């Protein structure tokens, strides 16, 4: 909650598409003490009408274009949710207009634009500039990270994660978006969706020092690689493998779980959005499982962090530098695939290890957050 007497942030929405409808608006609706939408714009008249319909926002708050929205004195900050190739240009305009910025990911269509994002952030040090990464704020991932920080599995030495799921255009879903079918950004689905996985890997395993990648194209509905496999060496000394496949044919159910092996135990992250599980196995064959239900996968928490940064000067976890660090793992993986060689990753200025986010003023992980957490203990001993 905001402190008494602190005015809610007057927020302008630039783009009101699927990401706002399915991800951001449900979170904003529950944060009326932190945000009030004072303006919105979208190039599609139908999309503006749809937004006012499901949100109940006054249609009179619609503006003709982003220039008109950015010129308004009653907009303190903007949430930018436009196609990936337009993110940088819109962020530039918003910062130049004196607004604080919460921008959809990723930070850049390629390595060159990622560097431009860093320079843009450095050029406006007095503004809060965040690139959204909800995986940094997910309850199950933060809980798993806290276990690792406490040494629950000893020294992590191996990470293994295979993720596979059919990807074809489906009406009403993110895969239906035309600009995703023929992406004007390097890496396609692996830069759009895959950066979330990289964020999870970095949050749990630390930064990547070296990567060796390979790609395949096995999906005619997208003009980009459908398959990516990476061998990773982490700065902390652990090694790992990450494989992601997005074919167009149906595939059997996949566990899609991440396993992290330590000298004193194993950590397994599994489950779906509706029920995520973190299981820690100890050297005595005891397992401790925590099930997470009813959370929103971090969208509320990342907006809380942004509000705390704007209103109280808190340094946000989801910085531009952290987003660039995620994206650069994908970019160097693609470089590696093209060159058929293992490649080093240079540290991203201002990034470093991902901080563990906690609600402001709290020592706990979940204070004031929605969701249910149920823990149980078992044994897999023979």
From TrEMBL:
Keywords, comma-separated and alphabetical: Oxidoreductase
GO molecular function, one term: nucleotide binding
Domain Gfo/Idh/MocA-like oxidoreductase N-terminal: 9-122
Domain GFO/IDH/MocA-like oxidoreductase: 142-267
Pfam families: GFO_IDH_MocA (PF01408), GFO_IDH_MocA_C3 (PF22725)
Highest taxon of source: Bacteria
Name under which the protein is recorded: Predicted dehydrogenase
């Amino acid at each position: 909650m905001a402190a008494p007497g602190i005015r809610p942030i007057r927020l302008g929405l630039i783009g009101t598409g699927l990401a706002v409808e399915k991800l951001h608006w449900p979170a904003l609706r529950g944060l009326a003490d932190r945000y009030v939408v004072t303006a919105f714009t979208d190039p599609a008249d139908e999309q503006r009408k749809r937004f006012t319909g499901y949100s109940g926002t006054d249609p009179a708050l619609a503006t003709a274009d982003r220039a008109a929205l950015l010129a308004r004195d009653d907009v303190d900050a903007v949430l930018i949710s436009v196609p990936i190739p337009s993110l940088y240009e819109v962020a530039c305009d918003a910062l130049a207009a004196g607004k604080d910025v919460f921008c959809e990911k990723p930070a850049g269509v390629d390595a060159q634009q990622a560097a431009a994002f860093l320079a843009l952030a450095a050029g406006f040090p007095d503004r809060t500039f965040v690139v959204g990464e909800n995986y940094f704020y997910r309850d199950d991932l933060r809980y798993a990270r806290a276990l690792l920080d406490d040494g629950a599995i000893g020294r992590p030495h191996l990470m293994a994660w295979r993720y596979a799921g059919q990807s074809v255009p489906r009406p009403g879903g993110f895969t239906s978006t035309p600009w995703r079918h023929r992406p004007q950004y390097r890496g396609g689905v692996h830069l759009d969706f895959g950066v979330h996985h990289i964020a999870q890997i970095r949050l749990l395993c630390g930064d990547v020092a070296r990567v060796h990648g390979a790609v395949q194209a096995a999906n005619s509905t997208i003009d980009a690689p459908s398959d990516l496999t990476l061998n990773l060496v982490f700065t902390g000394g652990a090694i790992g493998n990450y494989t992601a496949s997005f074919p167009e044919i149906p595939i059997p159910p996949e566990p899609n779980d991440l396993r992290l092996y330590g000298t004193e135990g194993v950590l397994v992250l599994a489950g779906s959005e509706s029920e995520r599980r973190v299981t820690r196995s100890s050297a005595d064959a005891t397992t401790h499982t925590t099930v997470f239900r009813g959370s929103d996968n971090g969208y509320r928490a990342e907006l809380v962090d942004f509000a705390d940064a704007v209103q109280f000067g808190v340094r946000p976890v989801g910085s531009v530098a952290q987003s660039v660090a995620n994206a650069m793992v994908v970019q160097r993986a693609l470089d590696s695939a093209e060159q058929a060689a293992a490649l080093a990753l240079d540290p991203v200025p201002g990034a470093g290890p991902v901080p563990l986010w906690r609600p402001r003023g709290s020592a706990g992980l979940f204070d004031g957050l929605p969701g249910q957490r149920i823990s149980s203990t078992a044994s897999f001993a023979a």
